[in-house]
Amino acid sequence: MRGGIVRQAVQRYFIFASGYTIIHFEKEGTMLTILIVDDEKLERNGIKFLLKREKEEFRILEAANGKDALGVLASNHVDILFSDIKMPYMSGLELVRQVRETDRDMEIVIFSGYNDFSYAREALRHGVVDYVLKPVDPAEFSKTLSRVIGNIRTRQAEREQRERQKDYLMKYFFIEYLYTSNTENADKLEELMSGGSCILSRCVRMILVSASNGFFETDEEHFTGALKDQIQREFYYVNLNSNESLLLFTEMYTDYRALADTLHQFFWQQFDTDCYFAVSEPVESWREMPEEFRRLEKLLEEQFYQPGRHIFLSGEPGENTQDTAGEDSEIMEQISNDIKYKDLAHLRLDFGRLEHKYRAGGKFSQMYVKFVFSSILKEIYEQMDTADEKILSKKVDRLYHGRKIDDVVDIVSGAVEEFEKYIQEQQDGFRGEITTVKNYIYHHYGEKELGPEKLAALVYLSPGYLSAIFKEETGVTLNRFVREVRMNKAKELLEDTNKKIAQIAKEVGFSNSSYFCRSFREFFGTSPESCRKGMTDEESIQEVQES
Fold it and tell me: Which of 270, 299, 402, 504 could cysteine-pair with 312, CB 3.0–4.6 Å?
């Protein structure tokens, strides 16, 4: 480019400023980088002047010729390249040829005079998106810039859409793999993760989060964005249902108990939500996650029995109250399991072992023995939804005022007898109660509040107890069963009716249509729109891979 061309353009800019509209581009993502290549510094300064008149901010790089430009491109990502055609050492045409060998997406614009038009046409054959005639008209330059930025934003949007679709499919097959351990789901998931860096493939720890108030219908982007700001670390988020989500982390040596504490405070302070957290042991590969996930589900069942405790660690040994507590951990854990699983035969046996131990030994303090037996008493009463808290409080008070071991044992032994009678009265009704709950779900899936609390009230059981026997009888959790019924009904409505997606979402119990669409994708591996069109999961995968 020869001297004076950009100077003329700048002068023309001021002449026509009154009729010149600056194009405003909303920032999306990172700042765009522009490389200006021209052997005349004055001309480069002129282009920079025009760029700085735009409302969008740019990162601007410079080079005096094509050879220098290749050096700049080797160490910088460039979105837009402005280049003169005629330059020493390496022409603009040769620069374009070499750039296109390695970068098909870079937007390239050349400057060409009327005498160089043949060069401009050749440049267009090599992938130049546009050219600007000299002397540069500021308005035409702005239009060209607007056009190339539009191309970039369109590609960004398309790429983000493909990534979102791929992420939905990944989460769908991952969730299926977690619940079923099916190798076909694992193979499809691995296929989706191939060909690039996927955070899921690098995750080594899981934290299962439970909230009983439907919290996870919260807008995912808002929630995860706030969480990222809080914990300042990389994680992968998977929503399981409105009450449960899974967080996966890549760091091996982080203090995950402390991280769980931070998460508990975050949910409570930011969203006024009381959550429970089950922290996994390290896993060597995502293929090991289903087994560990089942441990986390089992751990979270403890929240019913220990409502004051919010964090549970997989593989964690029982906490000791005193130095002697370690000697009792095995028996106490067994008794706790006996109570939890309603194993009456072993409960009597294990309670007898504990009684014998304390009657035989004098090395235990009176207060410690009372603490142990009061803990058993509380666990028993927590399991009986008919129990009166005032009666429990009086029994605990009597226990701590007991003057001998017989007094303490008699109080807890009486509670064991009450528990046995309670369980015997309940056992005959298990299957009938499960049938009642399932029938209610089949006929009332459209109710928004269809959680354990409401369903348990129908059959006069506690929410935790209903959840336990429902899983035992059906093989799936209560929340999972509700989700399956709702999703299958939604699929039926999409295939057999012309109802709008928002209307269908409301009919199957979702107040938030965007959350419904996300849940549908994760459950079936395809969007509601694709389902209505008759697209299969395999077709969706193929569509993602081909795009």
Answer: 299
